[in-house]
Design a protein that fits this description.
heterodimer; A: mainly alpha; Multidrug-efflux Transporter Regulator, Chain: A, Domain 2; two-stranded antiparallel sheet; 5 helices; 4 strands; 56% helix; 11% strand; B: 314 residues; alpha+beta; Helix Hairpins; HSP40/DNAj peptide-binding domain; 3 domains; three-stranded mixed sheet; 24% strand
């Protein structure tokens, strides 16, 4: 298996659009977090899923990285959720300006 | 193996208080955090900081570390003393379980035993974690398609259960028409699964390198095109670079600065391709010799032109 993974061949992936959506279960699995983590992030306004209720929540592809960044910031820098949210917003703004 | 000076890494003195150590760590961690930092070697620096703090924040580990002394030079190399660890009890695995730490050999030789036996559990199967990274590509890659090599530092678990940092180089095909903000998912290229669980995926977020001429908005490309005043006034045919190659462009007579000329379908390729906008920028010829000054003077005298006519300051 490892030989396959580290081979020199050119890998072709699947292209995902910014507007593509993933379910709550997919998001949790991808980021290895519990459902509660995601609901907290939604409550804090860090994630903004579409859908009426938690059963129908759909998240944009960009949410994957947002979740990870928030978790890293909290764990590594000791900021609370609100602080991580603020940092995330400022990072977004910097990225926007540098474009 | 080299001795690591954890105090130096954190920039504190050996007699620093626990509070000072925490403060120094937090400050540097904010600076070098890979999610925040723009420093070139942030990832590596951050790892070193984490390792230094892991030891110095824990009074027991710190005391043990201090007993090694500080007069190790890199020529003689480092070896833990034979009685190392006697009388100390290091508790538990490093904090922040979940983050797959990969500390130096130096750390491992001193504190490695204290880490949790986090090997693959029996009969426990779980799909590996997905990994995320940004990948910088050139705008031209999106017009022609390309193949890019990327290097990633990824934690990997050896069969003995040790976490090591592995540099992986992947060749990835960049499909024609890729846009900033899109992601390429490479299935099975994330973290290895546990037990018989399959490997996670690797998500690569596309970002364009800044370009000398072009600016990109979604699928549209913008080009600021310098033109001479007479080209804008009289009209002209000029050669213009585009990401898919140079083209001839007609500048209509009487064009104003900032005028946008749309070249339909010459933006990023797709089923409905983006457009290329050429934004005219009128550049004044310098008046740095007598001949050009003479021409400017003649224009001043012979052309009735008040650029501030609408400003009501007459």
């Amino acid at each position: 298996m490892s030989d396959e993974r580290y081979s020199e061949r050119t890998l072709t992936g699947e292209v995902l659009n910014e507007s593509d959506l993933v379910s709550l279960a997919d998001l949790c699995r991808s980021c290895t977090v519990e459902t509660e983590t995601i609901t907290t992030l939604v409550a804090e306004g860090i994630l903004d899923p579409t859908g009426e209720d938690i059963e129908h929540w759909r998240f944009t592809i960009g949410s994957l990285r947002r979740v990870k960044t928030v978790i890293h910031l909290q764990r590594d820098l000791g900021v609370n959720l609100a602080g991580a949210a603020l940092a995330l917003e400022l990072l977004d703004r910097i990225a926007e300006m540098e474009r | 193996m080299d001795y690591k000076d954890y105090y130096k890494t954190l920039g504190v003195e050996r007699k620093a208080t626990q509070d000072e150590i925490k403060r120094a760590y937090r400050k540097l961690a904010r600076k070098y955090h890979p999610d925040v930092s723009k420093e070139a070697d942030a990832e590596l620096k951050f790892k070193d900081l984490g390792e230094a703090y892991e030891v110095l924040k824990d009074p027991e580990k710190r005391v043990a570390y201090d007993q090694l002394g500080s007069d190790w030079n890199s020529q003689q190399g480092f070896r833990p003393p034979p009685d190392w660890g006697a009388g100390f009890e290091f508790h538990g695995a490093p904090q922040g379980a979940g983050r797959q730490h990969d500390f130096s050999d130096f750390f491992e030789s001193l504190f490695g035993q204290a880490r949790g036996s986090g090997g693959p559990g029996r009969g426990f199967h779980m799909q590996g974690e997905d990994h995320h990274a940004k990948i910088l590509v050139n705008l031209e890659d999106s017009f022609h398609g390309a193949s890019r090599s990327i290097s990633l530092q990824m934690p990997d678990v050896t069969p003995e259960g040790h976490v090591v940092s592995k540099k992986r180089t992947l060749k990835v095909s960049i499909p024609k028409g890729i846009r900033q903000g899109q992601q390429i998912r490479l299935s099975g290229q994330g973290a290895k699964g546990r037990g018989s669980g399959k490997a996670g995926d690797l998500y690569l977020e596309i970002e364009f390198n800044a370009h000398r001429y072009y600016r990109v908005e979604g699928a549209d490309v913008y080009l600021e095109l310098p033109v001479a005043p007479w080209e804008a006034a009289l009209g002209a045919s000029v050669k213009v670079p585009t990401p898919s190659g140079a083209i001839g462009l007609k500048i209509p007579a009487g064009s104003k600065a900032g005028k946008k000329l749309r070249l339909k379908g010459r933006g990023i390729p797709a089923k409905t391709p983006g457009d290329l906008y050429v934004v005219l920028q009128i550049v004044l010829p310098p008046a740095d010799d007598e001949k050009s000054r003479e021409i400017y003077r003649r224009m001043q005298e012979e052309i009735k032109f008040d650029p501030r006519a609408t400003m009501e300051v007459a």
